[in-house]
Amino acid sequence: INSKGYDYGITIDHNQLFLSSDRQDANSTHPFTSGGSSSIFSTSINDGQPKLYSESWTSNASEDCPSFHPNDSIAVFTRCGIPEDGTLSSYCKLYLSRKDYMSWSNPEEIILFENQDSINLGQGYWDAEGKYLYFVSDKPGGFGGRDIYRVPYINGEFGLPSNLGIQINSPKDDYFPNPQADGSLRFSTNGRIGY
After folding, report:
1. What count of Cα atoms within 13 Å lies in the side-chain half-sphere of residue 145?
2. Among 43, 121, 164, 186, which residue carries the largest CB count within 10 Å?
3. Rounded to 10 degrees, what is the CA torsion of 177, 179, 183, 189?
């Protein structure tokens, strides 16, 4: 499963392992990772031979951290542009794609904030019931560098996002929110004491 490049951002859905990797482009120099642009790959958990997951999700940017809605009809992932490429935003954004039979639609940017062109949004993750999408942003006015937010998803529409507050977010960076079925939230942070 692992390559010589960067392999990260894993998700398990229906006995499929999804990961982000720059294995196809590992010799180039991406401004964020010093490796290549990442793409989303998948494999069955027992197979171990990751394959590019969706052509419609793959671009010159880096794609990572997919999350699948419980109804299996929509997915979100993060896309980060390359600053030197004038056709892509140099910021990370959340994208949504819809499933049509066995293929996925061309992804569309999810607009959650006014004037979000100059902020980063990413690492979206659905809760177990698909009622909320948790994500990370460096939107000004938060508690640290990057904070965890959530936004309701009702009748196919996103509502107003809310910051999870100072009890969750630290003065530094909080990443990779992963809501659990029991209502707890797992996430990574460099703003609290740990190992």
Report:
1. 7
2. 121
3. -20
Write out the two tokens for 9.
Answer: 């951002």
Tokens standing for residue 71: 């109804």
Q: CA 37, CA 25: separation in Å to the nearest integer? A: 6
Q: Which of 189, 86, 77, 177 is nearest to 127 (CA)?
A: 177
What is the reported pTM?
A: 0.90
Between CA 171 and CA 143 the distance in angstroms is 5
CA angle 44, 68, 121 (to 5 degrees): 120
Residue 100: phi and psi, rounded to 5, are -125, 105
Tens of pLDDT, residue by residue over 61-99, are: 889 999 999 998 999 999 987 655 555 557 899 999 999
CA distance 174 to 186: 11
